[in-house]
Amino acid sequence: MDANYVVMVVTLIIWAGLFGYLISLDRKVKRLEKTNEN
Amino acid sequence: MWWKIIIFFLMSGVIVGAFVFPSPMNPQISLGPADVYRIFFFHVPQAWMASLAFIMAMVYSIMYLRKKEDIYDVRAVTANKLGLIFAILATVTGSIFAKLTWGEFWNWSEIREVSIFILLVMYGAYFALRSAVVDQEKKASLAAVVSILFAVAAIFLIFVLPRMYAEFSQHPSDTIINKEGKMTMGPNVRLVFFSSLAAFTMLFLWINSISVKIERLARRKLVGE
C-alpha cells in the first residue's frame, strides 16, 4: 500500500478522535453551565 | 450541531484531498521530496489561525480597556492561548518540512523561523505576566496592554519582516500569490488549500467558544470560593 494512504488513514483516525473528544467536551461544558445556572 | 458535522466532513475532505491529489510542489523551484510539500495544506492554515487569534485577542483587549468588562479579558486570554497553540503547531510542522527539504530542523539564519521564535517567547512572557500578577483587575489591564502591543509586533514579525529581508528566507515564495498579485496554485491545490483554511477557521471558532465557556466557569468557581 502507498505510504501516502497509510499517513492519510492515520491522520483521519487522529482527526476522528479529536473531533469525538471536542464533542464530548462541548457536552460536558454545556452540562456544567446548566448546573451552575441552577 | 449541523455546523459541527460540516467541520467534520470538511476537515476529513481536506485530509483526503491533501494526500490523494498530486503534491503542491513546484519542481522548478523547490527542493526535497514532493510528498513533503503536502504539509503546506496544514502548516499555512495553522500559521493563519495563530495570526487571527492574536488579532482577535488585540480587539478584545481594546474592548476590555474601554469597557472594563471581565468577559473581554476572558475572550482575550482564550484567543491568545489558542494563538500560542496554533503558533507551536505551525513551528513543529515547519520544522519537519525544514528537516526534509533543507536538511535541518532549525536554522537561525532563516528569517521566518527567527520571527516565530520571537513570537513564541513574547506570548510565553504574556502568560508569565498573567500568572505573576495576583489582583484580577490589575492583571487584566496589564495583560490587555501587553496583548495589544504584542499583536502589533506579531503582525510585523509575520507579515512585514520576512518580506523586508526576503534574502534571509528559504521559504518557498509565490506559493499563494505571485509578485503580480495572481494566484499561483492549480485548481486542485486551490480547492484543498481554501477548504483547509475554512475548516481550520471553523475548528478554531468552535474550540475558542468551548475554551471561553471553560474559562468563565473556572472564574465563577474561583469567585464562588
Could you please describe the fold and organization of this structure?
Chain A is mainly alpha-helical. Chain A is built from 1 helix and no strands. Chain A is rod-shaped, with a radius of gyration of 17 Å. Chain A starts with a helix and ends with a helix. The mean pLDDT of chain A is 91. Chain B is mainly α and 225 residues long. Chain B has one domain (38-171, 187-224). In chain B, 75% of the residues lie in helices and 0% in strands. Chain B has 6 helices and no strands. In chain B, α2 packs antiparallel against α3 and α4 (111-132) packs antiparallel against α5. The longest helix of chain B has 38 residues, at 187-224. Chain B is globular and about 60 Å long. Chain B starts with a helix and ends with a helix. The model of chain B has no long low-confidence stretch (mean pLDDT 87). The chains are: A mainly alpha (38), B mainly alpha (225). At the A-B interface, α1 of A face α1 and α6 of B.
Q: Quick gist of this model?
A:
With 38 residues, chain A is an all-alpha fold. Helix content of chain A is 92%, strand content 0%. Chain B is an all-alpha fold.
Q: What keyword list fits this structure?
A:
heterodimer, A: mainly alpha, 1 helix, B: 225 residues, mainly alpha, 6 helices
The Cα radius of gyration of chain B reads 19 Å
Please give the largest β-sheet of chain A.
none
Beta-strand share of residues of chain B: under 5%
Number of separate helices of chain B: 6
Strand content of chain A: under 5%
Helical fraction of chain A: over 70%
In terms of per-residue confidence, which ranges of chain A show pLDDT below 50 for 5 or more consecutive residues? none
Element-level helix/strand string of chain B: HHHHHH
Count of extended strands of chain B: 0
| Biggest interface between chains | A-B, 19 and 19 residues
Instruction: Note the overall shape of chain B.
Output: globular
- Helix vs. strand class of chain A: mainly alpha
How far the N terminus sits from the C terminus of chain A, by CA atoms, comes to: 55 Å
Oligomer: heterodimer
Mean pLDDT of chain B: 87
Biggest sheet statistics of chain B: none
